[in-house]
Amino acid sequence: MASAIRRIAVLTSGGDAPGMNAAVRAVVRCAVAQGMTVVGVRNGFAGLVAGEFTPLTVRSVGGIMQQGGTVLGSARCPEFATEPVQRAALEQLAAQGIEGLVVIGGNGSQQGSAALARHGFPVVGVASTIDNDLAGTDITIGATTALDVALEAIDRLRATASAMHRAFLVEVMGRKCGYLALMAALAGGAEAVVLPEFPVEPEDVARALQEAQMRGKSHAIVVVAEGAPYNATAIAEHFRVHRDRLGFEVRVTILGHVQRGAAPNAFDRILASQLGAAAADTLARGEHGVLIGLRQGRVSATPLHEIAGVQKPLDPALYRLVQVLAM
Ligand code: ADP
Ligand code: F6P
User: Which of 7, 72, 243, 246 has fewest C-beta within 10 Å?
Assistant: First the structure.
């Protein structure tokens, strides 16, 4: 049966994530397969409001799946939280004859999707951010590639930490969510992890490292989430000030944006292809107002109003596991 919606747009929003391009490719090709035409929006909601549209075809999205970043460009557009700016976006969509929109992005972006849906516009979100902080999906597009990058760095730091008998603080991204830090700590065999969800004081980190030393460890890696109450710089300052009492210093590596730019790994390409395809199929069926994510291994749709602004909680059992395995 031919799709009721004939013309859709797709945008990428917020922090770029590895796999966004694979999602764009899947949206375009599956939409075309369902008889729809697709317009790309450059630079997220900012570009939508400014009317930055570009035609997308099955050929123009060729060769992008393996690239990091997003060929559509992305942006932060805080004004999009306001009603008049949302209405300006709706006017742009109407002027282009666009009947549905796919928003590929993270927690903030899906609040933008929910806002457009509240205005009655057909929107489907696709869960994509390295932070994996979005309710309605077990994992977001880009998170495992960012984790791979963090792990590679941690493995290298462990080699030099071991050689020089040193303690390293490695700060990873994730905004207010500790997912990346927790998983990097688990997979990297960290001696300690510092997360927004389970706040600790710098003195607690010092105690964990002293205890590790007493158990015979000659070096240590502490993974610190950037959103923790004390970030790596603040913890290192505590060690500097109390150097004589604590007995050792720490070195800091802040991984920063290198975690974002990698080529997507196999998992993210596959996830992005599945979620992008499901987003196009959902609009083709005339359904909307949902986030497409992966829940318990299945591609699932969750109403945007249920997930907008909801941060996914961390599993406390995994936090305890990091501590047990650091023995
Ligand atoms: P991410 O989507 O990766 O979490 P941001 O939090 O920066 O990144 O959100 C991306 C964009 O989504 C913002 O720049 C803004 O345009 C839009 N957005 C964020 N929060 C809201 C909100 N409460 N209402 C409407 N739009 C929002
Ligand atoms: O949301 C993705 C993310 O990389 C966060 O982990 C980080 O806090 C933020 O974006 C950095 O934002 P910007 O690229 O605007 O500096």
Answer: 243
Could you give the C-alpha distances from 186 to 53, 142, 189, 240, in angstroms and in order?
A: 43, 18, 5, 27
Say how many Å lie between the CA of residue 107 and the centre of ligand 1: 7
Q: 81: which residues sit within 8 A by CB, 6+ positions away?
A: 111, 112, 115
Q: Which residues are catalytic?
A: 131
What is the C-alpha to C-alpha distance for residues 75 and 12, in angstroms, rounded to an integer? 8
| Per-residue model confidence (pLDDT) at position 29 | 98
Residue 1: which pLDDT band, with cuts at 50, 70 and 90? low
Q: Check if 196 has its Cβ closer than 6 Å to any atom of ligand 2.
A: no
Distance in Å, CA 173 to ligand 2 centroid: 7
Alpha-carbon gap, residue 224 to 251, rounded angstroms: 12
Which pLDDT tens digit goes with each residue over 160-202? 999 999 999 999 999 999 999 999 999 999 999 999 999 999 9
Nearest CA to ligand 2 atom 14: 15
Q: Whose CA is nearest to atom 7 of ligand 2?
A: 175
**Are the C-beta atoms of 44 and 13 separated by less than 8 Å?**
yes
What pLDDT, on a 0 to 100 scale, did the predictor assign at position 248? 86
Q: Ligand 1, atom 5: nearest CA belongs to which residue?
A: 108
